[in-house]
Q: What sequence folds into this?
């Protein structure tokens, strides 16, 4: 066994992991299913603050997670996972074997407790059932990472120099830029999945990201802006940008300087006035990235929908109960279609989820009609329908959750300028900032980076610190124009679960037009 942890480790242990998930796990009495996930990542990062290097370094991640379904009287799940280090390499097989046995004992104990509770509570206990997984097509596959510049070959000193230079140039752009923090990272990861059904999936992912956070001040008014350029590619995306059909970013230095100019401009702009009635609002693709995330993506996650995570993440207005739900009903204008698609590029791209299910495109809203949810094998067995490959964990040591992939509004056939030109009086919201969402996602308030007043089809006064507030269904039903300018953007830190898992994923959409109330700064808040 090698003494250094690299992604090549997967090659050395693949057969051993397969054997443990199949031959060894099947030797345990009353075990119905087992899967083992092993993950290795190699990464580098650098950061700079106000033109001075803040830190730089390289590190690895190494972890595993195990799920077992077992039980004599009733079947229940058991999980075990942990992070690993170089000292664990020589005893890795023993550690994984012990992990399977710990998960197995937990599953057996859970199954026995479940059976006892079922017997004790009579008809109420009848709601407890064996934990089942919906059948899937079992695959053995290898999925390579995509990149031009291998993250492992990037020189850390050059990475530090580049990051510091971006920070210096941002700080020198204008006297109004009072603070900036720039970070970059690039990594290569590899995930191995093996199951007692015979699944064996080896997936690799490159990931590179640049982040810019800054504060600009004008006449006592400050503006904090934050944005990320990122993709599942190598260092080339920061050096020269991204130019793909659905994703377009300039080189990172230009990206950061543009954000700084925007902050300076906004600091000098007046605050957006709130309205007590609905007005016409046109929202750009970047703004709709957060709208699709919050009012489409989260409420279609079936673990949330089935109230498996109500205590720490909320529910979904799309399903009040198994008898009261929105499936097959109109929830939006006929112009609105929304879906999740892991085959799209960017942060939300993958081929298989973390239980070996082939990832599929899932249509949530089809021309205004609600169609369905993101699921796992277990929730598909409960709710019905085929598994669609959206069971994902931030790290192999954590229990996967149902997560968005690339969740988006579909593009239409209208030009964005034409959509604006038809507005006698309204507002154009550009870029997303901060969401505030109801517990069941039935209404929302999302602020924009910039808001322009529209008069007679032309953009006019620029405003800062504002957004829109609306009832989700009402807002979607009032969409009367959808642009052809579909764009996909990275979301770097979507949080969900307890303990909290942060996940990188993708969202997006085109320009859209609807009606909503404007919301300005909170009364009494400091500018």
A:
């Amino acid at each position: 066994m090698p003494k250094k942890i690299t992604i090549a480790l997967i090659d050395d242990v693949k057969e051993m992991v397969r054997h443990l998930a199949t031959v060894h796990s099947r030797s345990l009495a009353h075990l119905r299913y087992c899967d083992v996930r092993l993950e290795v990542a190699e990464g580098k990062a650098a950061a700079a603050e106000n033109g001075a290097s803040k830190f730089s370094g390289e590190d690895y991640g190494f972890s595993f997670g195990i799920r077992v379904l077992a039980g004599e009287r009733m079947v229940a799940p058991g999980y075990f996972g942990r992070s690993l280090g170089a000292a664990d390499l020589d005893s890795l097989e023993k550690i994984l074997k012990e992990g399977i046995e710990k998960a197995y004992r937990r599953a057996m104990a859970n199954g026995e407790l479940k059976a006892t509770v079922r017997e004790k509570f009579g008809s109420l206990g009848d709601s407890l059932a064996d934990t089942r997984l919906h059948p899937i097509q079992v695959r053995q596959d290898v999925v390579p990472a995509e990149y031009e510049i291998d993250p492992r070959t990037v020189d850390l000193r050059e990475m530090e120099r580049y990051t510091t230079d971006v920070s210096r140039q941002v700080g020198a752009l204008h006297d109004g830029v009072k603070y900036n923090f720039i970070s970059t990272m690039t990594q290569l990861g590899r995930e191995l999945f093996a199951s007692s059904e015979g699944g064996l999936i080896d997936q690799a992912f490159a990931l590179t990201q640049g982040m810019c956070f800054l504060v600009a001040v004008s006449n006592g008014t400050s503006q904090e802006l934050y944005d990320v350029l990122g993709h599942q590619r190598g260092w080339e995306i920061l050096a020269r940008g991204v130019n793909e059909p659905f994703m377009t970013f300039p080189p990172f230095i230009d990206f950061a300087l543009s954000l700084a100019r925007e902050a300076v401009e906004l600091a000098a702009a007046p605050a957006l006035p709130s309205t007590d009635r609905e007005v016409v609002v046109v929202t750009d693709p970047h703004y709709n990235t957060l709208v699709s995330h919050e009012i489409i993506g989260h409420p279609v996650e079936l673990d949330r929908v089935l109230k498996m995570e109500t205590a720490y993440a909320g529910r979904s207005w799309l399903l009040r109960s198994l008898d009261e739900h929105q499936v097959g009903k109109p929830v939006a204008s006929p112009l609105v279609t929304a879906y999740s698609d892991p085959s799209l590029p960017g942060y939300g791209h993958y081929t298989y989820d973390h239980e070996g299910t082939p990832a599929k495109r899932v249509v949530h809203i089809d021309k205004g009609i609600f169609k369905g949810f993101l699921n796992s094998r277990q929730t598909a067995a409960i709710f019905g329908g085929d598994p669609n490959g959206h069971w994902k964990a931030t790290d192999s040591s954590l229990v996967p959750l149902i997560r968005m992939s690339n969740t988006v509004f579909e593009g239409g056939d209208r030009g964005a300028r034409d959509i604006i030109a038809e507005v006698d009086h309204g507002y154009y919201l550009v870029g997303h900032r901060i969401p505030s969402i109801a517990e069941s996602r039935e209404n929302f308030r999302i602020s924009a980076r910039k808001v322009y007043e529209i008069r007679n089809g032309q953009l006019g006064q620029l405003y800062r610190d504002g957004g829109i507030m609306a009832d989700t269904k009402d807002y979607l039903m009032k969409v009367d124009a959808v642009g052809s300018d579909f764009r996909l953007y990275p979301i770097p830190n979507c949080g969900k679960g307890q303990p909290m898992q942060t996940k990188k994923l993708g969202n997006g959409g085109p320009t859209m037009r609807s009606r909503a109330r404007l919301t300005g700064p909170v009364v009494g808040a400091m500018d």
Notes: The longest strand covers residues 31-49.
